[in-house]
Specification:
mainly alpha
């Protein structure tokens, strides 16, 4: 694209949207930003390709992979596992900190008893 996705959308798709929706403006700014992010993510994957047919095929292949139910399921499982691991390690750190605090208090109490 020679333009940002927003300008491209306005220049190329505005008339099409006006005909379909009977008005312009149903594409929100967030949607446009999301499309821009997708384009920025795909660009490095296709910029080195000389064959324009292959360049056009990559986004559709990536989209089909991302919309594949098995892939989405695995991604969600990975996110849950990562959360569980982080929570477990945070719980371990909190427990260790609590034990260290209790030890410090016990040692302080022993010192106080010895000095009195």
């Amino acid at each position: 694209m020679n333009f940002t996705p927003k300008i491209h959308s306005i220049l190329v798709h505005a008339l099409e949207q006006a005909r379909f929706f009977l008005r312009i403006g149903d594409t929100l700014e967030d949607d446009m930003e999301h499309m821009h992010q997708i384009h920025a993510w795909i660009e490095p994957h296709v910029s080195h390709m000389k064959n324009e047919d292959q360049q056009a095929f990559v986004p559709s292949r990536m989209e089909s992979i991302q919309s594949n139910v098995a892939v989405v399921t695995k991604i969600e499982e990975g996110k849950k596992d990562a959360k569980h691991k982080m929570k477990a390690s945070a719980d371990i750190r909190a427990k260790r900190l609590k034990e260290e605090q209790n030890e410090g208090r016990e040692q302080a109490a022993i010192k106080i008893q010895q000095t009195t």
